[in-house]
Predict the 3D structure of the following.
Amino acid sequence: MVPHNFLALPQEQSSLDAAQVVLIPVPYDSTTSFRSGSREGPEAIITASYGLEDYDFELELDVSEIGIHTTGALEPHMAGPGPMTERVRDAVTTYLDTGRTVGLLGGEHSITIGSVQAHVDAYPSLSVLYLDAHADLRDEYMGTPFGHASAARRVYECCPISLAGVRSLCQEEHDFIRKNNVPVWYWDPNSQRSSPEGVLDSLSDTVYVSVDLDVLDPALMPAVGTPEPGGMNWHQLVSLLGKLAESRRIVGFDVCELAPADGPPACSYTAAKLVYKLVAYACGNRQGR
């Protein structure tokens, strides 16, 4: 029987005692405003990960040797997105207190709020690299300040944040970015408005990485709740994360908004590969690479 965890690891590599990394599936999409389905994302990522090679030739690292513990799915809080934020925060805190690196498998992007709050408690000098096609800086949207369109705004309120890959935003968000000098790398390979180096330079030494999969081009990643024309390709995204890992310490991450029913199986595999790369970038140096 195939072990039901990320990378289908045996007990000696997937138990909590053996793990440097804890992955928490969060099948939650209650504030989705366009296409629902990201609640199915965590399960699809885990299942797709069975097909990944454990060895990363770029980093010359067997990622499985890091030790990855996959928890049970975090049950959605039916009282609403505010209480769900608290539930995520408590769950992440539990594992941070044991010294593990914690990653979330989303689920919609609102789950980032509670995770970042927990990480700020553990790492007071934290900053966040927020990769998304959308700014997510609305103060509230559709009646809640804790929805997917407000995740970056809530993060901004507890630690510095830098946005990358943005190619859609509303007037409120545009004004907020200008007023508060929020570092943003607008995605346009032909534009001189901003650069990835500028965004990376704005980050502290301790970084949490939050990825909405719609930062990728929908030709590569159509299986998202709010697809946006244009976007990064795989190598552009991984190159940016690799540069980050060379100069900063990645202490936590999430990968959000996979809606597997809206795209081919390759989308789930790509999402799983991104989780695998983030695990390697966050903890690979501890393995002596």
Q: What stands out?
A: The longest strand covers residues 249-256. The mean pLDDT is 92.
